[in-house]
Amino acid sequence: MENESKKHTFPKKLVVCAVLIATLSAAVYLNWQYNLNNGDLDLTAALSKTEKYIGDAEYVNATVPTTTSSDFFSKSRNEREETRKQSLKALQDVLSNAKSDEKSKNEANEKIKSLTQNDKLQSDIETLVKAKGFSDCIAIINEKEINVIVKAPNGLKQEQSMQIQDIILQNSKISLENIKIIEVK
Description:
By secondary structure, the chain is mainly alpha-helical. The protein has helices at 2-36, 43-48, 69-96, 102-131, 158-171, and strands at residues 137-142, 145-151, 179-184. The radius of gyration is 28 Å and the shape is flat.
């Protein structure tokens, strides 16, 4: 009798261990996917990814859309303008809404004023940077920091970076540590 009960418990233990190993493996895989995507986990995409194997067919003549740097600057300006329009519309809706209280209306007015000032500052900085010899530039202001993306086909030299920083420091209240300059070739 004792041997029969041992025969039946061994497979049960084996099944339980296999289930635990599978569960642990799934947890490790999902954690890896979560960290790989900077905290954004799309379970459907993570579980349906196909991996490439040696010998798989690959289309060499496939056309890959490429974006030139001028397309990048144009697209960035259009996206910035669209976002600005949406923000202004939302703020104007708050102002025109009869149910909005005075505090909300005052905050909306302040945000509109800030958006307008940032828009002018971005435009001024872009114009001044282009005047220094860069063919294209886009400035993006967020709160108290600025990112300036410049077209520099031959790389950005230190003196050019200093010129851009000087333009920003002279025209804004943004501190030097909050200035980021990014080159696009």
